[in-house]
Amino acid sequence: MCASILSMQKSHLDEAAELASKRYTRQMEQVPCLPVNYANPDHLHSLLGGMIADFPGAAAIEDGRLVGFMCAWLLTDFQGRPAAFSPELANGAALELPGSAADEYSRRIYEELYAHLAAVWVGEGITRHLISFLADDMTAWQTWYWLGFGMLAADGLRPLDGPRISTDAINKELVIRLASTEDVETIYLLDTALDRYLAESPTFLPHETAHSQEEVCRWLESPENAFWIAWQLDDLQVAQPVAFLWMGPASQEACTIIVDEGTTSILGAYTVDSARSQGIASALLDEGLSWARKQGYVRCAVDFEPMNPLGRRFWLRYFQPVSYTAGRFTG
Known about the structure:
Blueprint: E1 4-7, H1 13-30, H2 41-54, E2 58-62, E3 65-70, E4 73-78, E5 81-86, E6 91-93, H3 102-123, E7 128-134, H4 138-146, E8 150-159, E9 175-178, H5 184-199, H6 213-221, E10 226-233, E11 239-249, E12 263-271, H7 280-294, E13 299-304, H8 309-318, E14 320-329
Parallel strand pairs: 5-7, 12-13
Antiparallel strand pairs: 1-2, 2-3, 3-6, 4-5, 7-14, 8-13, 8-14, 9-10, 10-11, 11-12
């Protein structure tokens, strides 16, 4: 490789922002509903500038021009340890690379950037390394896989101007309604069941602190949030809560590129085991998307755990991936 790996400086920001803008614009061709502001180099310049002010990144320079870069936020606590996290717009290799082996060249750039930064991070006691990348960058995904990273999360997006989700096959005895503060206990029980489900095999995603009923009450009281509960008659013809869906403004815990005033996020969803494979989750989603259109949103986002097969298959049926997050734990 002919590129030199340097500590990223303010002088690199213009080229880095242009590079990130080009990569994002390419993905917008596949996912037109993505927010347009992240294609603006000035917006990206500000975002990247804030990151390298917190902790230096790395720049790959060849023949006087930037051909790749990586920078990261430092997190004080990720699963009990400090971590370095590089968001999907804070890393990338140039699209216009010389020669016919462009993918291999890009892979080498990613490897050298990571090798440089990983040494710095581990030297600072940071052993949790997290990286997000745009979903269309398969070269990046292959690189992180071979470097020992495993997928931790995925983010999907869909526009709200498409057709409604078909619910023709839904059991007619199903009732879906918006929840109110009178439904605190019901939402709390379904949310607790979701936590238990995610902690089980094969997801193994335990919540360090369970949500309280007081916290659930605050969620329900917020005018920005909307909850739906699906009720189904049991054998005794008594309505039982079997599923819920929670939507609100763009999640601050998801990938960067979905965060926009025009984005609503799915913040929670769960269907009890006995009610699955009946189309109930699809019916809840259809209700939520209809609500979102009336609220003036233009797109809906969801982030989910790839190691949860049931959830993954459902969300990929209705959403297009825009970002993946992978992690490597070095100690």
